[in-house]
Amino acid sequence: MDGTPQVRRGVGGFPSTPQNTNQSPGVRSPNGSTSRPNVRTTLPDLPKAPPQSSTGPLIPADILDPAQQRFYVFAVYIALWAYRTYDFYTLAVEEDESLWLCLKWCFLDVIFTFGVPLLEIPWLEWGNGTAFLLFLMHAGVDVMLMFRIGIPVQAWLMGLVGFLWDSELAISERSVKPGAILHNASLILGKQIVNILPEGSAILNPDKQSFCLNSTVTQLEIPIMINQTEPIEMEILRIDIDTNINETITVKGWDMKSMLKKARKAVKSADPDDPLTLAYTVKKPGVYLLNKVIDHSKLLVRPRSTNVVVATCPQARVKPTGSNRCRSDLSNVALEVEGTPPLNVKYRLTVNGKPRGGSQFQNLQPEDAISPLSRHTSQALVKSGREDISWARPHKILVPLNETLTTSGSWAYEIEEVQDGLGNFVSYVNVDDEERPKPKVANVRQVFNVHERPTAFLKGCSLQTPLRVPRGNAARLPVAYSSTGKGAIDSAHTIEYLFTPQDNIVADGYHSPDAVLQKQVMRKGEQPTIAAAGLYTIKSVSSDFCEGEVFEPASCLLQNPPEPALSLDSEDIIDKCAGNPIGLRVELDFVGTPPFRITYTEKKDGRVVSQPSLQVSSLRSTIDLTPQDAGHYEYTFTTIRDHVYDERPLHNIKLQQDVRPSAQAHFIESSRPKQACIDDVAEFDVGFVGEAPWKLEYEMVHNGKRTKRAIETENPHYTIRTDELSSGGEYVVALTSVTDKANCKEVLKEEARVNVRHERPKAYFGHIEGKQTVMALESRQVGLPLRFTGSGPWTLKYENLKTKEVKKESFQNPNAWLDVKTDGTYQLLSVQDSICPGLVDEKADQFDVAWVARPSLSVPETSAVLEGSKYIKEAVCEGDEDSFDVSLTGNAPFDISYRQEYKDKKGKIASVSEKDLHTVNGLASIRSETSKAGTYEYTFMKLADARYDHSKKHFSPLTIQQTVHSRPGARFDKPGKTYSYCSRESEGEEVIPITLEGVAPFYLEVEIKHQGTPKPEISVHKNIATNKYDLKIEHRKMHLGHSSISIRKVRDSRGCTLKPPPGGPRVQISVHDAPTATPLEDRQDFCVGERLSFALGGQVPFTVYYTFEKQERKASNPGTTFRRLAELPGTFTITGLRDSASECLASLDITKTIHPIPSVRLSGGQVSSVDIHEGGGTDLDFQFWGTPPFEFTYTRSTNANKNRKSKVLEIKTEVSHEMSMSIPVQDEGTYEVVSIKDRWCSFAKSGEGHDGKGGQKLLAY
């Protein structure tokens, strides 16, 4: 059957390695020989494979190859573990049944471990024994997970780590090696080597001072201290700093004696053995070493290997720059520091006299080198005089300072001090200090002024609003100056502007390519003068010191409009009746910029009549010159002006005419009919036109009767007076005709009318409900009935007798109403209608007005107390019933509108509602709103009764405020949680956190219901001062087992009480017996490096709580013995213990004191060498750490030599009750400490002692 060949399984179910049967010539044969080419050999038969025991995987390989099948099986295995982990998590959270889950996973593991081999997948065909072993392993894990059995992984890991690395857990819960603590070589440090010198010694610069020379300090004295010798000759080696060339200076003879004499004079002591300090004067910089000293006995005195570097004193200056800057520029200041690097320089900055800050630059070095002085001292750099001392040469280093100048005014940079790498210090502040070199104060301060930048723009001129200037006149370019500061700069400005003549401006309004750039310097506030028409654009603005900025608008167009001119054209106006000219019609044509104003002179018969002016707003206009009187008129146009040009004269522009108007007569007054009283006389003014004399004919018509009359006059004005008008009615005066000098009679149609009253007017008060008195609402307008006779309108004068106020009013209606708003008695004084004065009826000339009382609202004292502008009502609790009363006066029923405003606890308005109340009683009761806690304000906004509506003017809002306290609340922070307690009371017990809401102090009642007990216990807690309360249940109320706790009642300091409904949130408590801990050693004091061991009683594993040096720690212990290595000194206290049987934490107080291992330092912990003379001495300085008294052992050995080893000469033991000790010695040798012991502990160097009892290392010699 054709198909995929089957793979033969090898040992253990794995496929066997395929054999290569096609070997090439030359390949080694299975028997080890090499076949030769061209030799015919008989090939052995191929081995036959045994019969296949399997037919291949259950899923054929052509469908899914074995590698992919193994991948899917592994994926299913990982998915099962993820599902198993999820079940474990839900078991820990939801507390499901463990047995069912354990059986489920054992069943699934059986299916997987025994089912996978049935798939016959290569490499996954294990036998039944292997499958059973895998099942047992998985079942064990299932039992541990589903029954939550702890796996001591930590204990296993710690045991493995301890086995591999030989370390122990210390008190700090970290693994440490005991050997590093027990064999700490840093506890004993220091060694002092004492060398006995020859007869004397000499030291150059014993105090290691620093010296420098400059232009003010040209020489100085360097100290040389000699001890127990009197030198007669010295050789001083000087190394030149610049050339590195050595120079030997010999001091002897008179110079040596002078130095000794001066030194003895300066010493106050008379003891010849005391050291002397010689002063050697140097004038050149360099490195000085004491090379050789010969005393008076011709013996060499060994000098100390020290040196003195005399360098050039450091100096610094501010490189001078310009004295002016502009705002927003960079300061561009540089500090030039010169001296031996590394250099330090300090400067300060003041702006306008106020310190702005400063800085200090440290470790300044050249860019191409790093000075060794930054890591070593000069003593370490020069030993023999053959070293390179180029590091001591002075260098100039430039330090740039660039910061933005944001403030205008005076800026000053000043150097305060400078120091070089040798310690030479120069201060430019305290130049009077005698101990320091005096610098020449030059260029240490740089002061410059920061100026504001100018700005400019054009004001009132642009391309859209050009500047129009008369031709030939100059104008100011309207430049407005400002600056980056508060105002314009008080100095000259330089303006650069671009100019293009008007004829050369391009079509788009821009400058032509050949525009001219002009520059002008303007005084303060001055503007450039321009005259030529064209386009001007400001390109730049600058002041004496700074370039500025040009803002928009920056372009201005200057125009020269044409000069104004006038041309006239006229024609006569002819009277059609008489044929005479009566006027002149003139057409005006203008050139220029409107509006125009022209003036002309009007002469009549050679006499100037008037000089009127005429305003024309267009380029063309027409006027009529028609004088009323006859004569010869001459009009001379004298001046003209337009919008641009001032007034200019006009030449030879005149008009003349002869005017002879026709006869006319007309009434001068208006055509409205006149009104007259009976028996009055009427007058009518008449005006005449034409040539005098005039003859006027008129007639008067009344009641159908017509009376004709005629008059003659030469006056152009005439007044017609009528006879007394004795009867009432209408009179008509009609002008019929007029004749002037030319005897041309003109017919007239002018009429004037006069109406004559039949009687005089009268005024009196009417009645209201039959009376001339009225009761009205206050401030309401009351209409008093008036009665008039005559022709309106009537002007009435009246007085309020109460207020003595007199008023006048006009009325149009004969039955009018006098509107008043003030109470009192009103009396009529006089009346006049539109024509005639009238009479007042004395029987009805008075009317009385009185007000009805307004309603009012008040709050009784029993309801609320007035505090400030509000009534404060007693506070209540949320949900309590409450109300308050208000008193009402007025005319019932009453309508009240009030606003109820609710503010929450934060004072924020949460809701506003308006309510209305209708009541018929004088006392209204209003229910208070207490459903929510907060502040309620009841503001009575409106009040009305049966007579009055609400009036804001007469009623002021009244506010009643009441605080509604929220009911207190109490809740468990972790409801449903189970808290564990010990059967006995201990410190640090778990508390039940409760959050209380309200105002402290609180009163709290909790209910404890024990399992199996029907009646609960009540626990009362009073005077709880905070809102967070840790509830502690008295142990006498606790029973072993489980109990539930719920909140029964809570009350706060305001008296508000809350009783939660039954069945609310609760917590559980579980009471267990407590574990115990016992020390395995009775002693209290231990040393660092020892072990603290305790026996634990209870169910393993344990959790141990302890504090070490006030730091709380927690440790898990898998066994019944708790042991820790003391790696640090301090106080160790076990404060609690918890076992695995419960969460009960037993409070303990087991304290052990761990003392530090004492330590000692000889010569400060350093290896020091001291040279003494024969017979002289020195001190061994010991410093101790630990608890006195100290017992220590030290040795004296021979000084180390290249040819022989050091040998111990003597061992001594001393006791010190202080923290330090000094022992004088005179013997040569190497001194070092080998062991130390204090009150508690001891330590010895390796090989010097052994461990003893009591946790201390005892010494053995």
Descriptive notes:
Helices cover 8% and strands 46% of the residues. By secondary structure, the chain is mainly beta. It folds into 9 domains: 66-152, no CATH class; 203-311, Immunoglobulin-like (Sandwich); 314-432 and 440-451, Sandwich (Immunoglobulin-like); 454-559, Sandwich (Immunoglobulin-like); 563-662, S-adenosyl-L-methionine-dependent methyltransferases; 664-758, Sandwich (Immunoglobulin-like), CATH 2.60.40; 762-851, Immunoglobulin-like (Sandwich), CATH 2.60.40; 856-965, Immunoglobulin-like (Sandwich), CATH 2.60.40.10; and more. A hairpin with a 5-residue loop joins strand 1 (168-169) and strand 2 (175-176). The longest helix is centred in the N-terminal third of the chain and has 29 residues, at 66-94. Mean pLDDT is 82; it is low at 1-54 and 1248-1261.
Beta percentage is: over 45%
Question: DSSP helix count?
Answer: 7
Provide the residue-averaged pLDDT: 82
Instruction: Give the termini separation.
Output: 96 Å
Structural class: mainly beta
Highest-level CATH class of the largest domain: Mainly Beta
Give a short account of the largest sheet. 9 strands, mixed
- Overall, the morphology is extended
Oligomer: single chain
Radius of gyration equals 63 Å
